[in-house]
Amino acid sequence: MYKVELEEGNGLWHDVTGADGAPLTFATRDDARAALARLYPVLVKLESYGGEKRTRVIEIFDKEGDSE
After folding, report:
1. Rounded to whole angstroms, how far apart are CA atoms 60 and 30?
2. Residue (of 21, 20, 25, 13) closest to 56 by Cα position
3. Are residues 13 and 56 in contact, defined by beta-carbon separation less than 8 angstroms?
4. 31 Cβ neighbours under 8 A, 6+ residues apart
5. Average pLDDT per block of 10 residues along the chain, 68 residues long
């Protein structure tokens, strides 16, 4: 399982949340990357031109170290 995070410009990363306030999660890394591109198209595109890294995809692991 994967979640997406956004750096707000202050050096701190925050989960991207849905309308219910819960972090958005995705079954695959590709789905998570597509969601980032859809939600933050300008930031994602700027990164491809060598801009600051402001978005990222994080894999979520359970206590045993397996992906959820």
Report:
1. 14
2. 13
3. yes
4. 2
5. 90 93 95 94 85 87 65
